[in-house]
């Protein structure tokens, strides 16, 4: 089947990209930062979509990947002076990869609910370790560090401004999206979806389902870790709160609200949720989660395909 | 063929039933009079079991109606229908394996509007029909043999005091001695005034025990005759069942 | 040595509470394939209803009953509004839906009761001498009561019409329906019972710690672990697993801090999933 270039899709893509690019130029600092954070959480949610939307495995443990990416970057930025961007990236990704390998091992032996519960447990294990191993991780207080410069050691080095950091994040997230899109639409991605639709049949046809699942988890974990690195760069601190299951929970919320299996859906879900939170918290202070929870539950029941679910077919061409 | 102007006990009219995307029943119509034994024959996969399931409310048709004593019951859930007098004995028996024989019977017996002595009477009747169940009453259902499980499935349906029992392939996988027993039980139920809609692969048994027979093919009823006619002239049987 | 005995007692007490919470969860899962993420919140709300009732009546036992009944009703409402529409859909949607419910309930509690923990006074004060220590009677009472409630549940399931209905529905929902058992009603009832049990645990456990909106989260997680280790849907297994894990945690607390001791349960889960995924305390299927 030849793929028709979808003009509408690419037009939309360019428009959105342009808007996001222009954000720091037109928005006040608070909202600029808000948009950057949407992108970062969006990346986290998108990484989770690989598992939830494409392979059919609901992970409640993405906070572990995110957190390890964040702490990995933090470690690199603290250990080496001057702080080095590339090292931070690599270190964060390695941290996430280790956790991902751990989880991947179990992913292949567990199905459905058992897998979900186990991921939840894992993220809690890492939370407890990070929270209590104060010497290394700073415990409750976390770690603070300075932001590295953009550049390659020995070649060039430009300090980030808040604008250029935004563009850097945008570039990374956009690049990640394009890579993930390529992957989900490749034969590999098709097999993942087949696993989601009907795992026994896919196995019966002859696909080594275990191996596909391992790769899916690793992929998901790496991009989640990348989001963690970006967050560390943006905020210059790492805290155990980000390894807590609230983060995993919010990730799942973004996915469901935005539409699983679409890649961009979760980003939209993150935007929707964060905007809701921002808006509602002005009226309801800390209790914004009550209406959000109600909306979320209602969506699970009545709009399970999420906000962008109706575009699922279009987005996956 | 059926006496005119008598409301049948069960009437199925033009039902279309799907399993997901598969269109199984393409407009099935049949009826069963009170106290009658009606056979439903056909090759594997023509929709005989699906017809029973539709009557029982376990699947809902997208078109068509099912009526019990003239009253439409098409959209009612199975548990209501069981209370209204439809008993179901499925193809794979589906007795509750971890419940004892007695508890299995109680799933049908424990109805709050039934006085104790009537319950006692029903139990006695079940043990009379199936003495082996009396012996095994405290045993878990899963420990019974295939034939015993079939008997339990029928006895369990009887506990509902049904007006009609939907019997799906009761003799499947049973030894000839048990097949004869099933035949005797169908006759006994008939004498008790219980109507039966019998789906079977065993043609001789069906012709022997039924008054009328429907033959299905590819999701519709193709032929309808008195059992006596088919006993004398089996060309139709050969035509539809290749037996 | 004394430490060991004290911790054993503590472990058993905690285990019984956990068993009470977990049996509700396992019952719900066994019948309806629903993983109730909101179970910890029902526990928490039970404790809160207990505290407010105590303020009015000054009687702990009345508070216990009121809390159990109120939360059971809440459970019924939740089942009917959010879970019934999901029957027949992918079971993972129930995780998401109950998760949404847990968000609402937890923040509702925060909103209604505020962030400051409340005190629930124990009904039985007084200690007895255990070696050199004073061990509170109340803790023993908790263990006994929890055992009694679980025992009551067991008897209810084993004998009696409704027990048969519940067990039949667990084994074969479709056939139960065909036998006239009102399956939707059974589902509501079971969820309500599970909720009531969680609430009762909350009230019983309340005097041991402060009652606050976040107290449920830990228990949800632990209860899940217990349910998996004990065998999903296996009542006896989850009780044994509850005690087993709580004992291990209590002993671990002798060496490491309590917040680290929880890793014991996590490790137990992982080992179970690796070695014997159907449950450590489940007899090998024939």
Outline of the structure:
The complex is a heterotrimer of chains A (317), B (243) and C (286). Chain B is an alpha/beta fold and 243 residues long. In chain B, 38% of the residues lie in helices and 25% in strands.
| Rg of chain C, Å, rounded | 19 Å
What integer value in Å does the Rg of chain A equal? 19 Å
Q: Major sheet of chain A, described briefly?
A: 2 strands, antiparallel
**Separation of termini of chain C?**
42 Å
- Number of individual domains of chain A: 1
Q: What is the count of β-strands of chain C?
A: 2
- Structural class of chain C comes to mainly alpha
- Helical percent range of chain C? over 70%
Secondary-structure element pattern of chain C, one letter each: HHHHEEHHHHHHHH
Principal-axes shape call of chain A = globular
User: What is the count of DSSP helices of chain A, taking H or I runs of 4+ residues?
Assistant: 14
In terms of quaternary structure, the protein is heterotrimer
Description of the molecule:
In chain A, a hairpin with a 3-residue loop joins strand 2 and strand 3. The model of chain A has no long low-confidence stretch (mean pLDDT 84). With 317 residues, chain A is mostly helical. Chain A has one domain: ABC transporter involved in vitamin B12 uptake, BtuC (Orthogonal Bundle). In chain A, the strands form two sheets. Chain A has a two-stranded antiparallel ribbon with strand order 1-4. Chain A has a two-stranded antiparallel sheet with strand order 2-3. Helix content of chain B is 38%, strand content 25%. In chain B, 44% of the residues are buried. A two-stranded antiparallel ribbon of chain C has the order 1-2. Chain C has twelve helices and two strands; from the N terminus they run ααααββαααααααα. Chains A and C meet through helix 5, helix 11 and helix 13 of A and helix 4, helix 9 and helix 12 of C.
Could you list some keywords that capture this structure?
heterotrimer; A: 317 residues; mainly alpha; ABC transporter involved in vitamin B12 uptake, BtuC; two-stranded antiparallel sheet; two-stranded antiparallel ribbon; 4 strands; globular; C: 286 residues; 12 helices; 2 strands; 73% helix; 3% strand
């Amino acid at each position: 089947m030849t793929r028709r270039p979808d003009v509408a899709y690419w037009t939309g893509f360019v428009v959105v990209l342009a808007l996001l690019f222009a954000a720091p130029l037109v928005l006040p600092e608070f909202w600029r930062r808000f948009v950057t954070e949407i992108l970062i959480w969006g990346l986290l949610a998108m990484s989770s979509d690989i598992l939830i939307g494409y392979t059919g495995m609901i992970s409640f443990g993405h906070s572990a990947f995110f957190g390890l990416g964040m702490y990995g970057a933090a470690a690199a930025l603290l250990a080496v002076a001057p702080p080095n961007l590339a090292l931070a990236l690599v270190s964060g990704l390695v941290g996430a990869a280790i956790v991902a390998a751990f989880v991947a091992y179990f992913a292949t032996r567990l199905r459905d609910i058992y897998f979900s519960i186990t991921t939840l447990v894992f993220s809690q294990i890492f939370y407890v370790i990070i929270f209590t191993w104060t010497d290394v991780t700073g415990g409750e207080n976390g770690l603070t560090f300075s932001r590295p410069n953009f550049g390659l050691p020995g070649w060039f080095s430009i300090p980030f401004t808040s604008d250029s950091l935004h563009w850097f994040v945008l570039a990374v997230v956009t690049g990640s999206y394009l890579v993930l899109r390529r992957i989900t639409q490749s034969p590999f991605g098709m097999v993942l979806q087949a696993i989601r639709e009907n795992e026994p049949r896919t196995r019966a046809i002859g696909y080594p389902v275990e191996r596909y699942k391992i790769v899916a988890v690793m992929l998901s974990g790496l991009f989640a870790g990348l989001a963690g690195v970006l967050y560390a760069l943006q905020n210059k601190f790492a805290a155990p709160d980000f390894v807590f299951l609230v983060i995993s929970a919010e990730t799942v919320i973004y996915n469901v609200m935005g539409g699983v299996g679409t890649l961009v859906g979760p980003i939209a879900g993150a935007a929707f949720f964060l905007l809701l939170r921002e808006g509602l918290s002005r009226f309801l202070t800390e209790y914004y989660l009550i209406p959000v929870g109600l909306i979320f539950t209602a969506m699970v029941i009545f709009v399970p395909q999420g906000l962008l679910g109706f575009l699922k077919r279009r987005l996956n061409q | 063929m059926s006496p005119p102007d008598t409301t049948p006990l069960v009437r199925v009219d033009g039902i279309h039933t799907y399993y997901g995307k598969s269109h199984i029943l393409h407009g099935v119509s049949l009826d069963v009079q009170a106290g009658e034994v009606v056979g439903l024959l056909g090759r594997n996969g023509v929709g005989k079991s699906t017809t029973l399931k539709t009557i029982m409310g376990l699947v809902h048709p997208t078109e068509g109606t099912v009526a019990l004593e003239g009253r439409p019951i098409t959209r009612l859930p199975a548990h209501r229908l069981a209370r209204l007098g439809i008993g179901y004995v499925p193809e794979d028996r589906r007795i509750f394996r971890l419940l004892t024989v007695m508890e299995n019977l109680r799933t049908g017996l424990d109805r709050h509007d039934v006085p104790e002595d009537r319950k006692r009477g029903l139990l006695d009747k079940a043990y009379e029909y199936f003495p082996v169940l009396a012996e095994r009453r405290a045993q878990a259902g899963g420990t019974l043999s295939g034939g015993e499980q079939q008997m339990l499935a029928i006895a369990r349906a009887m506990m509902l005091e049904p007006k009609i029992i939907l019997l799906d392939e009761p003799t499947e996988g049973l030894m000839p001695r048990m097949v004869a027993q099933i035949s005797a039980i169908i006759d006994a139920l008939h004498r008790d005034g219980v109507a039966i809609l019998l789906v079977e692969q065993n043609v001789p048994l069906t012709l022997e025990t039924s008054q009328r027979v429907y033959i299905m093919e590819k999701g519709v009823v193709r032929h309808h005759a008195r059992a006596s006619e088919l006993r004398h002239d089996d060309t139709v049987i050969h035509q539809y069942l290749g037996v | 040595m004394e430490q060991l005995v004290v911790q054993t007692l503590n472990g058993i007490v905690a285990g019984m509470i956990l068993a009470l919470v977990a049996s509700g969860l396992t019952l719900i899962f066994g019948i309806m394939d629903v993983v109730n993420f909101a179970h910890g919140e029902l526990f928490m709300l039970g404790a809160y209803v207990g505290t407010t009732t105590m303020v009015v009546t000054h009687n702990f036992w009345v508070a216990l009953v009121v809390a159990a009944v109120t939360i059971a009703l809440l459970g019924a409402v939740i089942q009917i509004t959010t879970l019934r529409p999901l029957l027949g859909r992918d079971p993972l949607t129930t995780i998401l839906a109950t998760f949404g419910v847990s968000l609402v309930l937890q923040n509702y509690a925060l909103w209604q009761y505020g962030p400051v923990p409340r005190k629930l006074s124990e009904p039985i004060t007084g200690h007895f001498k255990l070696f050199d220590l004073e061990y509170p009677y109340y803790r023993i009472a908790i263990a006994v009561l929890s055992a009694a409630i679980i025992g009551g549940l067991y008897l209810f399931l084993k004998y009696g019409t409704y027990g048969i209905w519940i067990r039949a529905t667990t084994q074969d929902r479709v056939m139960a329906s065909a036998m006239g058992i009102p399956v939707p009603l059974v589902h509501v009832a079971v969820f309500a019972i599970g909720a009531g049990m969680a609430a009762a645990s909350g009230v019983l456990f309340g005097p041991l710690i402060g009652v606050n909106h976040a107290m449920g989260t830990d228990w949800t997680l632990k209860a899940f672990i217990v349910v998996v280790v004990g065998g999903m849907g296996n009542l006896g297994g989850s009780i044994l697993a509850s005690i087993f894990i709580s004992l291990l945690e209590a002993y671990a607390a002798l060496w490491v801090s309590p917040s680290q001791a929880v890793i014991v349960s996590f490790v137990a889960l992982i080992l179970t999933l690796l070695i014997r995924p159907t449950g450590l305390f489940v007899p090998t299927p024939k």
